[in-house]
Design a protein that fits this description.
Blueprint lengths: L16 H12 L2 H13 L3 H29 L3 H11 L7 H33 L8 H12 L2 H21 L5 H26 L2 H9 L8 H15 L5 H7 L7 H29 L10 H12 L3 H34 L4 H21 L15 H28 L2 H8 L3 H26 L5
Helix pairs in contact: 1-8, 1-11, 1-12, 1-14, 2-10, 2-12, 3-4, 3-9, 3-10, 3-11, 3-12, 3-16, 3-18, 4-5, 5-7, 5-14, 5-15, 5-16, 6-13, 7-14, 7-15, 8-12, 8-14, 9-12, 10-16, 10-18, 11-14, 12-13, 13-14, 14-15, 16-18
The structure holds phenylalanine.
Length: about 450
């Protein structure tokens, strides 16, 4: 593997600051906010989860996102070579490249289930268009979703479609079309989410929803809630696996990493909270279970679309925008792998896309089956394939990647290099450094200690 064969001039570069912000926000905002956040909140006791999650975003997520963008921008390489390059710059071991390689793998594993869930979203575009939500109630929505999940070929079909579009876009490379589309799609998504909140306020139990999500309930904060909240903070911000690093590597030198990060984290968190409020209003008004699991949004949102005027069109539009948000995230999930392959082996971008595409098609097809035919095949710790990939990536691999990056930036890199790259004022820099050297490593390590039973 050559590690220095990637002069920045050969790589794409963002046309301007706004584009980078949009692309990184596009990576962050996705199924994590709309699909995962509500069901994780529901399964982890509501407000207890939300509180810890918000703390994790503020104390770990934001400093780590800055850290990861900084690493990418300084190295201007794919995550594995970026880590090797920066390590050499700091006279440290090349083996730091394993952090990047682990990220490449993590992206592939996340996309393994991401494309299946995004497939559900695609199916729901068609369902909305066909008027399948008319007058549907809680029980009806649940049944409709269960019938859908039981059909392996349909799940595989939608997964294939989602993956094919993702890979087509990826094979064309940075800048093509995607930037322009983001300009319209992201603000529209925000607008329709606001509308959904309005509707669920009108037809749902908004007070109960707000209470469930925000009234402090500290007794419900258990180690497993903390673990899930930490993992979700990483997942939703796309940090810990090199996505943000690879986007940062295409970023020009004159841009403020701190401001960009704050902006993205804020938008990302707001969307999650808004969707959560809408979902739980519907959950409580329709006698559904908050802890229904990964199907939660698909069993609740149809109820709202079923009663609102022009609900078919609104439903279609909503699911189209969610699919778009999922695409911009999926692209960032594979970009580390594509950049690594093309920059290390004599593969064209197109060939690299095929390699990852086929791998991920197989993985996704297996995940699709884990919702029906293979649902009872437990691989490790009583988890089937979907649960395993979800937990392994969100709760372990992403935090582990974040930990390694924090240790690297906090203890291995030269302070002058880090400071120069971040360009913060002295006080903000001191705060950031404290978060990276102490807060993040200690928080992540103690959670791992619990998880692996080192403490007990
Ligand atoms: N942040 C994305 C979402 O919320 C998922 C993602 C995770 C993307 C990790 C890239 C890297 O949907």
């Amino acid at each position: 593997m050559s590690q220095s064969a990637t002069p920045a001039a050969h790589r794409g570069a963002w046309r301007n600051r706004w584009t980078f912000v949009l692309a990184t926000a596009g990576s962050a905002i996705g199924l994590g906010n709309i699909w995962k956040f509500p069901y994780m909140t529901g399964a982890n006791g509501g407000s207890a989860f939300v509180l810890v999650y918000l703390l994790c975003i503020a104390l770990l997520g934001i400093p780590l996102m800055m850290c990861e963008i900084m690493l990418g921008r300084r190295a201007q390489r794919n995550p594995a070579d970026a880590m090797a390059y920066l390590a050499r710059e700091a006279n440290a071991s090349r083996q730091w490249r394993w952090v990047g390689l682990m990220g490449v793998l993590t992206g592939i594993l996340i996309l393994g289930f991401y494309s299946v869930i995004a497939g559900w979203v695609l199916d729901h575009i068609v369902r909305a268009a066909n008027g399948a939500f008319h007058g549907i109630d809680g029980a009806g929505a649940k049944l409709q979703f269960e019938i859908f999940l039981a059909k392996p070929l349909e799940l595989i079909f939608w997964h294939t479609l989602f993956l094919a579009v993702t890979m087509t876009v990826v094979s064309r490379g940075l800048n093509a079309g995607l930037e322009k589309a983001s300009n319209i799609m992201m603000p529209s998504l925000f607008a329709i989410v606001l509308l959904m909140v309005g509707y669920s306020m009108a037809v749902g139990n908004f007070a109960e929803s707000a209470r469930f999500m925000f009234s402090p309930n500290f007794v419900l904060i258990t180690p497993s809630v903390v673990l899930s909240a930490l993992g979700h903070a990483f997942f939703t911000l796309s940090i810990g696996m090199g996505s943000v690093m690879v986007y940062g590597s295409y970023l020009g030198r004159h841009i403020s990493i701190a401001r960009t990060t704050l902006y993205i984290a804020l938008t990302d968190t707001t969307i999650g909270l808004l969707v959560g409020l809408a979902i739980f209003s519907l959950v409580f008004a329709n006698g559904l279970a908050p802890a229904a699991g990964p199907g939660l949004i698909f069993q609740t949102l149809p109820i709202a679309f079923g009663v609102m005027p022009a609900g078919d069109i609104m439903g279609m539009l909503f699911f189209i925008l969610v699919a778009f948000a999922a695409w911009t995230s999926a692209i960032s999930l594979v970009e580390p792998a594509i950049a690594w392959i093309t920059e290390n082996f004599s593969f064209t971008r197109k060939q690299a896309t095929w390699v990852i595409g086929v791998t991920n098609w197989l993985l996704g097809a297996a995940v699709a089956l884990s919702f029906n035919l293979w649902a009872d095949i437990k691989l490790i710790a009583g988890l089937n394939l979907f649960d395993l990939l979800d937990k392994l990536t969100t709760n372990i691999l992403l935090p582990a990647g974040g930990l390694a990056m924090a240790l690297f930036a906090g203890y291995v890199m030269k302070t002058t290099h880090v400071a120069e790259e971040l360009g913060l004022g002295p006080r903000t820099y001191a705060l950031w450094r404290f978060a990276i050297r102490y807060v993040s490593p200690l928080a992540i390590l103690s959670i791992f200690a619990y998880l692996f039973g080192w403490l007990s």
